[in-house]
Write a structure and sequence with these properties.
Length: about 525
């Protein structure tokens, strides 16, 4: 990679950053904006040709992206929805791979079964980042979002395992179904075991040996690579190991991280995820230029035919998901184990789950990781065609399904779930339990200290009670109770701004050292962040 390519990538990352500003301000889903920018980059004339080592793509991008998604997931929600998640993450991935493979092999000439199944495996897993970004703020039931994110987390692993088998069939020219089935279970079991081992060792290191936040955050950045390399050393699923480690450490994070480390780690991983997602689509744009200028591919198929193939594969992916999901709504009611499961599998909710199968960065990273050549030294057959079709699937599912999802929700008249009402209940319960603890266990301390603590929590409790917010009114932005609830918080934020101005003036006069300035600024930042999160938007 020449210096001019590095300079170009840095400039394009600046562009991605400004794109994020537009996306966040306009509430436009960032993954959709990224894929559109990737398409634009591929059409810019004069950009340098970029050919990357596929192993670098696979190793550098996938472990941290999957670890970040696992870290943000809740083990409790994952466990509560394990049945629908597993059915989609394994069954739907295999079903999609088979259906896409059959359609591609039947409709596209000169593409073998192994290549068709390879493409099917690449486009089979929906993307966790895309699912959470597109569904954010739509008022969906949290269980639906948990299923979508959990499915995206696990099916990345199952899709990659299927991809490895299809790739091995192309590279070796041999494939045995029964051997592959046995190896599949071995790869899964050993991968999970490696992930748990790495997670447990790092849990002990974080809890008992590391006491510096900078070291802890650095360890979290190295963790996905350690888990991936260990599993790959034993020829197991490195991806599944990374996901397992991420879920395990996320579940134990409250026990092993200090407050400062947890704040820093969350911030660092937000930045890492943002950069990697943007960089993948930048690299995609540069690679697409190579793909689309491949004269052999264009000559063989023709531009319009290629676009038809892309639309065909995309529609197959969408239809197959509905074929898998919707039959659940016609199961007899006595087969449902719980009432909330019956509500979850209401036909309207299943339509939303079916329509939310957006593909994204993981599929693109897998496609870019396809080897350039086969062992004989010849070019990998139909590599550019597979990358092009993968991009088409991402484009259609992200843009078409992602942008129309709010409209589908409105048409189905799905009741809007209020997280604010849930937050109100949780805050009330926390404060009530703390006040009981104060009355039962803190009576022996100095009465001045006791009164201050009691009054602090009493004020917070009264703020919640005086709002008198029924569950149905939390979403109303013009409700008087909301203004009452926010007023005290806003006054506190205004006072913090005064504190900032005072410390800044003292610093400019030279009466405050840099160390004290940074310490007080950090305290004000943390308090302001807490207050802003507490306010009802």
């Amino acid at each position: 990679m020449g210096i001019e390519v590095v300079e170009l990538i840095v400039l394009l990352l600046f562009g991605v950053t400004f794109l994020a500003v537009f996306s966040f301000r306009s509430h436009f889903p960032f993954p959709i904006a990224l894929v559109l920018v990737g398409l634009i980059v591929s059409q810019i004339p004069g950009l340098p040709t970029l050919v990357l080592n596929p192993d670098i793509i696979f190793f550098i991008f996938l472990p941290p992206l999957l670890y970040e998604a696992a870290w943000k997931s809740s083990w409790h929600e994952f466990k509560a929805n394990i049945r629908p998640i597993t059915m989609a993450a394994v069954g739907l991935v295999v079903f999609t791979t088979l259906c896409v493979g059959w359609v591609v092999h039947s409709m596209i000439p000169n593409i073998s079964w192994a290549e068709a199944f390879l493409l099917g495996a690449i486009v089979s897993p929906p993307d966790a980042v895309a699912a959470s970004s597109v569904t954010k703020g739509l008022g969906l039931n949290p269980r639906i979002i948990s299923i979508l994110e959990g499915e995206s987390l696990l099916n990345d692993a199952s899709g990659l395992i299927v991809y490895r088998y299809a790739l091995a069939a192309i590279l070796t020219g041999a494939f045995n179904f029964w051997d592959a089935g046995l190896q599949f279970f071995i790869v899964v079991i050993v991968g999970v075991a490696c992930g748990l081992l790495v997670g447990y060792v790092l849990y002990l290191i974080h809890k008992y040996f590391v006491c510096e936040s900078l070291v802890e955050v650095t360890l979290t950045l190295l963790t996905p690579f350690a888990s991936y390399l260990l599993a790959e050393h034993f020829h197991a699923s490195g991806v599944l190991a990374v996901v397992t480690t991420g879920l395990y450490l996320s579940y134990r994070s409250s026990e092993m991280f200090s407050t400062e480390s947890r704040i820093q780690a969350n911030s660092v991983w937000e930045v890492v995820g943002f950069i990697l997602n943007g960089l993948v689509f930048i690299l995609l744009g540069l690679q697409l230029r190579v793909v689309m200028t491949d004269l052999d591919m264009v000559t063989t198929h023709g531009t319009l035919i290629l676009m038809k193939y892309g639309l065909l594969v995309s529609l197959t992916v969408i239809v197959v998901r509905f074929i898998w999901v919707l039959p659940a709504s016609i199961r007899p009611k006595f087969l449902f184990h719980k009432k909330d499961e019956r509500e979850l599998l209401d036909r309207r909710n299943l339509i939303i789950i079916g329509w939310s199968g957006m593909r994204g960065v993981v599929s693109m990273a897998i496609a870019l990781s396809i080897p350039l050549t086969i062992p004989s030294g010849e070019l990998f057959p139909n590599r550019n065609l597979i990358i092009f079709l993968t991009f088409c699937v991402i484009m259609v599912t992200l843009v078409a399904q992602g942008l129309t999802l709010p409209w589908v929700i409105r048409k189905l008249k799905i009741p809007k779930y209020s997280l604010l009402a849930e937050e109100y209940e949780v805050r009330s319960q926390i404060i009530s339990e703390v006040m009981v603890h104060i009355e039962n266990n803190l009576q022996d301390i100095d009465h001045v200290v006791l009164n201050r603590i009691r009054n602090s929590y009493q004020n917070r409790f009264e703020r919640l009670q005086h709002t008198e917010l029924p569950r149905t009114e939390w979403a109303s932005s013009d409700n008087r109770a909301l203004r009452v609830f926010n007023q005290f918080t806003q006054v506190q934020l205004d006072v913090i701004e005064v504190e900032r101005k005072v410390i800044s003036q003292l610093h400019r006069k030279g009466t405050v050292s840099e160390e004290i300035l940074r310490k007080i600024e950090a305290e004000l930042d943390i308090e302001e962040t807490r207050l802003q999160m507490e306010m009802v938007k």
